[in-house]
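Everyone, carefully examine this protein record:
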Amino acid sequence: MPDGPTLLSLVESRRVLVCAGAGGVGKTTVAAALAIGAARRGKHVLCLTIDPAKRLADSLGLHGMRGEVLAVERARLAELGVPEGGALTVSMLDTKRTFDDIVARHAPNDAVRERILDNRFYQYVSTHLAGTQSYMAMEKVLAVLGDPTFDLVVLDTPPTSDALDFLDAPERLIEALDSPAMRWLVEAFEPERKLGLGVLARGVALVLRGVGRLTGQGFLENMAEFVTELNDLFGGFKQRARQVSAAFRGKDFAYVLVSTPVRYALEEAALFLERLAAQGLAGDAIVLNRLHPREKLEVSLEDAARAAERYGLSRSLAAPLVAALHDEEAQGNADAAALAAFETRFGPGGKARPRFQIELPLLAGDVHELRELEPLVSRLV
């Protein structure tokens, strides 16, 4: 067991670990390491990513992964010390397929299901509407929670410029699909559903049909039909989205914030933690990734020259080696300054301060194989 805290208690006590943070901080690598660590504890783990760039498959060395779901083979897991009782499944979210599955599951009959799936506006919403990807990930997690196959889900959230985007996904999708303008549109094209708009609705319908001639034959009619069907399907999409949002605020979920010791990334993490605290939730842990060494190393040019010779290198590399050490020292000092500012913001007993703080060293290169995750697995779990 490494010195300092680990996330073992979260792995043992929660059903879902949500890895969140700014883009480019190593969320996917941390998620993969957590998943392997949990599998070593004998758990059946699903590691789900919403990243379309397939970074999770690359981090796990699964470069040939083509489908949506892949169970890591037993021999590969054995190399990592995963016992017979442990298992790891990797899944890359297919947003449209997840949406299609929800429609198929909730549709009252085949006719309604086919009408929605064939709707032109649905084709757009299920693939391109902002917020759909994050929201469908939340739906996917809820579906998995009902599956006894998995003991733990590790969720790699999408790379965004704002770490708050993920938790806001249901609200943003509600705004897009259940706005006053959209309800007005539905009532205009579905007179039997109008709620007292009367002449105004019929007038708007004429205007919208005129716009429809500009946007494509039947596009607005398709939009209105889709929203109407969706609300009927889920008993009110707003209510459904709120249920999804509430589930992600339940006690089975833990939030692991990932950041690098860079001011913008730490600012994102701080804002996310404060937002969670404002909603009565806790950021359970923060993982500070890619930390440079902080120790001060006094190395002379002669020491560096002798070291170069021991590795069969030219003594002329002594000066660049010493310069590289000084650069590492400067980077370590910069990391320490950024972390000190972060500490000052929250204080030892700050309300939004996570229970666990894990520090991970900067690795020599990107992770492309399971075995390269070993230092992180040991440190995290």
User: Anything to note?
Assistant: The domain at 12-178+236-293+335-380 is CATH 3.40.50.300 (Rossmann fold). Residues 212 and 219 are 6 Å apart (CA to CA). The beta strands are 16-20, 44-49, 69-71, 87-92, 152-156, 253-259, 285-291, 356-361. The radius of gyration is 25 Å.
